[in-house]
Amino acid sequence: MKKDGTILGIISIKGGVGKTTTVINLATTLANDAQKKVLVIDANFSSPNVGLHLGLVNTGATIHHVLNDKILVHDAIYKHQFGFDVIPASLVYEKTSPLKLKNKVSVLRKYYDFIILDSSPTLNEELLATMLTADKLFVVTSPDFTTLSTTLRAVKLAKEKGTPILGLILNKVRGKHYELSVKDIENTAHVPVVAVVREDQKVLEALSKIKPITLYKPHNKVSVEYKRLGAALADTRYNPPSVMQRLMNYVVEDVENFRQHRFKTGVSYYN
User: Fold this and answer.
1) What percent of the chain is predicted at pLDDT more than 70?
2) Does 261 share its domain with 205?
């Protein structure tokens, strides 16, 4: 039995920055690469996404039932094929009491190394519940002024509530001159950027197949960044893919792109 597991809150005050994708991929690499016992909880009670990312639709027991005292928290846990456990939320809106989350989740610490909360992207009681429940937070942001302004609000609120922020996860980076630099973001937010995740269509491709990018394309640059962060969290050694593994990854992707092009244009692959 595990003891004193860490509760991580993944937050942002803006939708579409890749918060849930970050949650799922961190959970995947912690469970499979670092061999940690991991539980993911969908704490985005009004607009849940975790179940959709994992193919868990029309589940019976959810976090809503737990918070409404209809079932015990252990009865809402599902073992997922990706190697970690999940407590999904009800896809059909159900009124609940978000601030009960801390008491309900704390009893699970002794069973897990990491409990990861996917928070609401709205400044409301749901986000507050994640901040009050989590031991530590990551703030997911993207390199633009609009998102930075909401990130600053999230950082300010977290500091007011006394929940430590481990760092910023900079997502959907295109490497364009008009994007904010890591230095600019760190100097403005006064929080370190701990991961830089580039924008990659393979992430969307993986989502369409209901599979984390870290499993779908484990040597992809996006996967490597999540794996590095997971290893740092778990205090384990990360072994990056070899030159040959990276080369084979590019070769496989080139072949896939060639096949897709031939298929779309109606030209036989064998011609």
Assistant:
1) 88
2) no
Backbone angle region of 167, left / alpha / beta, with phi > 0 → left and psi within -120 to 50 → alpha: left
Report the residue count for the chain: 271
Residue 244 has pLDDT above 80, yes or no: no
- Tell me, what DSSP letter sits at residue 40? E
Is 1 among the domain residues?
no
- Mean per-residue pLDDT for 208-233? 96
The H-assigned helical ranges of the chain are: 19-32, 50-54, 63-67, 101-106, 125-133, 145-161, 182-189, 201-208, 213-216, 221-234, 243-265
Of 41, 16, 199, the C-alpha closest to 122 is: 16
Cα–Cα dist 78/59, whole Å: 9
Same domain, 10 and 139: yes
Into how many domains does the chain fold? 2
pLDDT > 70? residue 252 = no
Does 122 reside within a domain? yes
- Say if residue 158 is in the same domain as residue 257: no
Q: 270 pLDDT band (50/70/90 cuts)?
A: very low
249 pLDDT above the threshold of 70? no
Domain contains 261: yes
Contacts of 239 (CB under 8 A, 6+ apart): none
Q: Do 96 and 64 contact (CB within 8 A), yes or no?
A: yes
Rounded Cα distance between 44 and 127, Å, is: 8
Q: Which tens digit of pLDDT belongs to each residue from 24-57?
A: 999 999 999 999 999 999 999 999 999 999 999 8
- The parent domain of residue 108 ranges over 6-240
Strand, coil or helix: 152:
helix
